[in-house]
UniProtKB/TrEMBL annotation, chain B:
Domain Solute-binding protein family 3/N-terminal: 27-261
The protein's name: Phosphonate ABC transporter, periplasmic phosphonate-binding protein
Superkingdom to which the source organism belongs: Bacteria
Keywords of this entry: Signal
Entry's family note: Belongs to the phosphate/phosphite/phosphonate binding protein family.
GO biological process, one term: transmembrane transport
Residues spanning the signal sequence: 1-23
Record carries keyword Hydrolase: no
Origin species: Alkaliphilus metalliredigens (strain QYMF)
One GO cellular component, as annotated: ATP-binding cassette (ABC) transporter complex
InterPro entries the UniProt entry points to: PhnD, Solute-binding_3/MltF_N
Amino acid sequence: MSHKRKKIYIFLGLAIFALTFFCVMIDFSFLRIYQGIPSMYNLVERMLSPNLSYTQEVFSKLLETIEIAVTSSFVGVLLAMPFALLTAGNITPSRHVAMILNRFFAFLRTIPNLIWAALLVSVFSIGQFSGIVALTITGFLIALKLFRENIETINENLLNSTKSVGANQIQVLRYCVLPTILELAASVFFMVLEINIRSATVLGLVGAGGIGQIMWRDLNHLRYDNLATLVLILLLTIGTIDALSFIVRRYIKRSFILHQSIESYKRAPQKRILQLILLSIVLGFWIMNAIDINYARLIMGLEQGYLMISRMIRFEWAYVPRLLEGIRESFFIAIFATMTGAIGALFLSFFTAYNTAPLKVTSFLTKGMVNLLRTFPPIVTAIIFFRGVGPGPLAGAMALSIYTTGVLTKLYSEVIENSHENIKNSILVTGSTNLNAFRYGILPETLPAFISLVLYRLESNIRTSTILGIIGAGGIGTILSMNITWRNWERVGLLILGISIMIMSIDVLSYYLRKRLV
Amino acid sequence: MNKKLMIILMIVLISAVAGCTSAKEETIRMGFVPMMDGDKLIESVEPLAEMLSEEIGVKVEAFTATNYVGVVEGLGSGQVDFGFIPPFAYVLANSESNAQVVLTALNSSGESSYRSQFLVRSDSDINDFQDIHNKTVAFVDPSSTSGYLFPGAHLMAEGVELEQDIEYIYSGGHDKALQLLLNGDVDVATTFVDVRQRYEKDFPNAMEQTRVLGYTNDIPNISVTVKGSMDADMQEKIKNALLTIAEDEEGSALLKELFNMYGFVEATDEDYNIIRETAKSMNVDLQEAN
């Protein structure tokens, strides 16, 4: 016991030290937050009276956003499947190709949404098309990561035993990998859809239409009553997607025992293919409908995009000092937010997951609260904190902490809910409390999953923290958005490179950390 | 579980200590929100902050933001003492928290205002505002004074109803509005004067390929706005400090070089009524903002 104990204490000590260090780096101060509470409350109060007469306008914009998000999520997830096969370490045809592709996609994943949209709007003009492309790219990258990680967890024995009976590469894919991917596809689709709908609020910053556009307008006109309506409707939408995802996943799970006779089992593949074709046709039409651009215009846009990118890769090295200055702050904001978010999520998840919560009501209530936390766009929360604590990284860090707590709690409580009941029960039968069952049963079991969720959040937090800079809440966002406005592509290129290098080095670091810990 | 409690307690203690030790001497916080239609890319306001610190005798901490909402809210809560903010942001700050404008910056032609323009392609059949009916117009974004409010109000004064008579989109930037026009995606673009020169490198043929259809009313330049709760004494100090710096040889060179400001002129709230009227005609309800 003592050795293990020691290790834990050392780890905790280090964590506390790190947290304190980051607190200092972002000028954390309870006093400042405490003193800012009245003025923050004042702003929240103005949001407490949503303007309901505004609902109609929001709905029409929301439909636009949903159309963009559904189209892009579908295309993104579909595209991700073949690439996942190509890049997953255990089934890739060539390890070198997989490595190069993985690096490349990891690099693309580090580029903030806002940048994609800003670039694409420049290239393809305004309207739905550039929004769709931007979200397709981000959706594709997220889906790819999820698929790949899941394929890599397919048991090596399963693959080997299939190979040993003489199956060729295609057959291995068909019988080992495809079932995993298809089973996963629905939940990945809904996850990407949710992320895309929320990202669409950011796209409004660059004129890409949809709900983001009116949100940005209301924010800029200080119409907090309208903003509240918007957040409320967004909350409902995300809740609906959650429910839909739940229903669809259940339906898919059930469909495995549909066959009662061998004939129906044999017929099923044909039926399924037919269904798939029909579904593709319908969706294909919908996508064609959503994309409104002609060929000549596309070529012209691509040429302009090519010019832009070729300027971007001519990095302006003289700008490195500014880059480092900004990136340092973004880095601290993101790390702080991830750490506090992780601590918050660990506690909240216990109350949120229905199988660990002391009462069903607590679970229900905290679930609602958590949904609210993660629906509030971080930029709005940042403005609230900015009002309370003033300029500097603290406002951004607090806003991001809250958002991270929400997202991590949601993801982790789902992990807890999916954990095997007998883990918990085996401890409960010894007469221990619910809390101890969590502490000694569920927590050790799900810790690896939790850590990888935290690391995933760290990556996205760095990306999100680049947006917060635009209101003066610290970080690299200020100079990034200014240089985009000024079309200084050589500098934008360098800034993106800097962000990417930072995220990738954190990735490498966390990989080793995870290996040591788990 | 005791352990966890301990950890939290420790964090609380440590950060409380860290928070208390960082209590600083009196400082003034200045926010700088460059106008998107300004002539200079303003990244660092440090040099200006240093000069102001010397002039006022109190340390001035400065920061930049690309969007004004945070600064307006900061002025409202007193977290930000004064700021260089766009005219529309001033009007919002004034109606929200009684923030006061003290100065307006002068531009390179020595004026305290600028205009925005309507651009069409050179070969376009649009020759006056009546021809805009049923055409597509690119505005910049709904919060842009020179890229939406003033051009929009101008069109309405010319008898063009935005919702019925034209198709319009928000491009997200003055440069993008120009790009959309050049690419043929829209028929009219509204931008500041003169977007074609600022982005000459990106759109070298813009001057030949487009022509100006007309100009809007005068728009006040960037404002120096102090928070509503500031005492008159400090207001005077800040105002005089900036005026002195603009007179000073070294100071004026720096203002021109870094911020493209050619001096300041005293401003009053009435100077900004034009923004209020324009906003009102565009159905932007500022009173509701409270």
